[in-house]
Amino acid sequence: MSDEEKPGLLDALQAALAAEHAAVYGYGVVGGRIGGQRLTEARSAYDAHRARRDALVREVRDLGGAPVAASAAYALPFAVTDPATAVRLAAELEERVADVYSDLVRASSGERRGSAAGALREAAVRAVGWSGESVAFPGLAERAGSGAAAGGSASPSASVSAAASASASASASVTP
Fold first, then answer.
1. Shortest CA distance to 167 belongs to which of 153, 150, 157, 152?
2. Predicted TM-score of the model (pTM)
């Protein structure tokens, strides 16, 4: 079965795109509050998420879908007022992006699956860089308490904090 024939692929791509939109927004906040020592790291992550977002837009279009649009703004999971909370937000963003890429890995095959696994790995590595902590299976362990069953997913909300672990929605509410 080709990727294009797999059920749920377009939804998983849209969810990853929504997560990337939210991560780009979130890194804008991080960049405004992060200390000078980590600003380069934040810029690098911002650029990486923009590149992934743009690639996902192309993939969704290639499958005949209309790419989910970014929201004008996103609710943050907590107030970001200083470098410490900016670092915490960056870690949270990466963990949430890893969540949706785990669904895309499951929904795809071949080259697309490899690319999704690479994106999951990159997000997990960045999350560790920001938080100093890791999990055995990034994108999966965090979901154990979220109520999302294997193969199932919740619909993302307009809130960055609530929607990151959600994985498959083509709605305009786009958070990781």
1. 153
2. 0.77
- The residues facing 75 across adjacent strands are 159
Q: Where are the beta strands (DSSP E) in 40-105?
A: none
Distance CA 65, CA 52 (A): 17
Q: At what angle do helices 83-107 and 39-62 cross, to 10 degrees?
A: 30
Q: Tell me if 37 sits within 8 A of 132, measured CB to CB.
A: no
pLDDT in tens, 34-62: 988 899 999 999 999 999 999 999 999 99
Angle between helices 9-33 and 110-131 (to 10 degrees): 30
Q: How far apart are CA 25 and CA 32, in angstroms?
A: 11
Q: What is the mean pLDDT of residues 146-169?
A: 34
The CA distance from 166 to 143, in Å, is 9
Distance CA 124, CA 90 (A): 11
